[in-house]
Amino acid sequence: MKKVAIIGAGIGGISTAIRLAHKGFEVSVFEENTYAGGKLSSFNLNGYRFDAGPSLFTLPNLVEELFELVGKNPKEYFEYIKLPDICHYFWEDATKLTAWAENERFAKEVEEITGEPAQKILNFLKDSAFKYEVLDGLFLQDSLHKFSTWTSAKALKGYLNLPKLGIFGTMNEANEKLFKNPKIVQLFNRYATYNGSDPYQTPATLNIIPHLEYNIGAFFPKKGMVSITNSLVKLAEDLGVQFFYENKVEEILVEKDKVSGIRYSNISEKSISKAFDVVVSNMDVTPTYRKLMPNQKHPDRLLNQPKSSSGVIFYWGIKKQFAELGLHNIFFSDDYQKEFNTMFQEKTISNDPTVYINITSKLKPDDAPKGCENWFVLINAPANEGQNWDKIIANTRQNVVQKVSRMLGENIADLIECEEILDPRTIESKTSSAQGALYGNSSNNRYAAFLRHANFSSKIKNLYFVGGSVHPGGGIPLAISSAKIACKYIEI
After folding, report:
1. Residue 464, C-beta contacts closer than 8 angstroms, at least 6 positions apart
2. Which sign, positive or negative, has the C-alpha torsion 259, 287, 479, 34?
3. Which of 1, 63, 259, 293 has an alpha carbon 20 to 30 Å from 362's alpha carbon atom?
């Protein structure tokens, strides 16, 4: 039986482990932390539970597919519900808008509140579905680094529809052309942040993203986002996968351009070399090369690409409940373009940032004490380039407290009874994400999809890559998809 070492127990690594165990490999997962999931983990603080990272669940079929692949019933491991309301939006002029999951209801609310014709919303969502249908099979399910992908029927469909895919203009340009109300432009521009990009630079192709929420649905795991990780780890273990926590991989061993194993250190800091037939890195591709293969040739053109945004997250225990807030909430900035210029050009956080607040206790009451709420407060931030983060965080915290207090009519500072903070430095150290970038390379140009590393090495045999820093991109669905693509090429 061939042996596989997977470096990192992020969602991409766990999904890879399941698929390879099903194929008949002996799979070992090495994780430096004491827990699995990477960014998709959780922690408790003073009676509050927080999901540490991703807070939006879309395309649950990709998770269910892993259970069905091995003949298991997903519901025995994992349950979720579909959200009736996707997000609650707030603007400084007191405009409030609920993005309902039912498209007709959402479009009608947009028209009533902003004057933007409902039919334009429905047309936009229909076009988003069309773009996704064309691009899903080509970009999200196959490797862009295999000639067969570009000669397939799916590729031909893509070629024929190229002018309709938004490749040659930006997301903002496309949205401003369609919508007259700047609030609705801003609402749909925000989807660029789902892969850490700038709507004023990223191609309009990314207008496929709203399709996931509005046409397929946004969901919530009944036991919190971390239950995605926990259920998949349980499935992997049921298949015989072994997880080695507090084991730090220090080197990928290569002999004659072929993987021969790994060298790692365990909790006692003893260095161990072990032979493996296949190595899969779920670690960010940049430190995989720079730290684990310092003597191998590096694909510098890909590794040196500009990074996606990162984030500053305040985890707040709030000793009050707010009826006007839902699971997902956005408090928009007044000058969205300035906010992105500040982030990507000035490499800092705007004094008027857009604030995202996720409150899982709305649907899972035991995540907070009675009468309280657990606030996951995310502000988009630049990747770490040595900025004075302590100063930036202090300034940002003050601005966020003032902004949310102003827009809710309540002094939030007086309600915060406990706090934890995550920033680009700690994201980098905890998850081995280069510069703390949440999605690897940015997608701020039309060629970005081609500037992600392949899911396999073209230079070193039996070396593969999964996770958000490689093809097809960041986020839970794409990380799971990266595992599926990589496993196509790993054979017994």
Report:
1. 16, 278, 279, 280, 281, 455, 456, 457, 486, 489, 490
2. positive
3. 63
Instruction: Specify whether the backbone of 145 is left (phi greater than 0), alpha (psi in -120 to 50) or beta.
Output: alpha
Residue 2 CA to residue 257 CA, distance in Å, equals 18
Identify the segments of the chain with pLDDT beneath 70.
Answer: 137-139, 143-166, 446-450
Residue 95, H or E segment = none
Structure tokens at 410: 């309540």
Task: Report which of 350, 243, 353 is spatially closest to residue 13, judged by C-alpha positions.
Answer: 243
- Residue indicated by tokens 């365990």: 266
Alpha-carbon torsion angle 438, 444, 447, 452, nearest 10:
-10
Model pLDDT, residue 158: 58
pLDDT digits (tens, 9 = 90+) for 163-215: 666 678 999 999 999 999 999 999 999 999 998 999 999 999 999 999 999 99
Q: With helix as H, strand as E and coil as C, how does 214-247 read?
A: HHHCCEEECCCCHHHHHHHHHHHHHCCCEEEECC
The three-class DSSP label of residue 400 is helix
State both tokens at 343: 């982030």
Backbone angles phi, psi at 368, to 5 degrees: -145, 155
CA–CA separation, 290 and 301 (whole Å): 13
The Cα–Cα gap between 337 and 45 comes to: 36
3-state secondary structure of 28: strand
**How far apart are alpha carbons 190 and 196 in whole angstroms?**
10
Q: Which helix (H) or strand (E) holds 189?
A: helix 182-189
CA–CA distance, 303 with 386 (Å, rounded to integer):
18
- Whose CA is closest to 175, among 191, 195, 196? 191
